[in-house]
Give the backbone structure.
Amino acid sequence: MRKAGKHLFDCTAEDLMTRDVIAIPGGLTLQEAAHRLSEAGVSGAPVTDEEGRCVGVLSRSDLVRALDQGLPSPAEPAYFGDWQMAEEERGETARFMTPAIIAVPPGASLAEIACTMCSSRVHRVLVTDGDGRIVGVVSSLDVLGALAAEAANHNEFAGA
């Protein structure tokens, strides 16, 4: 969350980012991945490979696209349990995620973050360190929250 007293336009990705990043293993079914997103209360998350490296992002838009393409809906599973699931049904998450990784460094400004989100048409950017490891996520809600806090602070002082 944004540092107290820091002006909104001086904020960086490091100031705004969520540090506890929920990741989704690429080998999960879409139903399992959707459950993880729902449990965490997030609309998207990085997808990781067996070694924990980020290989893409799964969002609600990806889930909608997958269901639109005729995958079984979570209400009508195509199997009765993991032991009955065909091997090719595993890994749906990696198949339907967005493979492009939209990332910014921790020092990216709010303007850079907003421009990256707009030009890439995404609602979140990953924050990566110099080695490409994910250290946080900045979502559009993080940006809006910082803007709302700035507006609230400005209104408090304007009335005084």
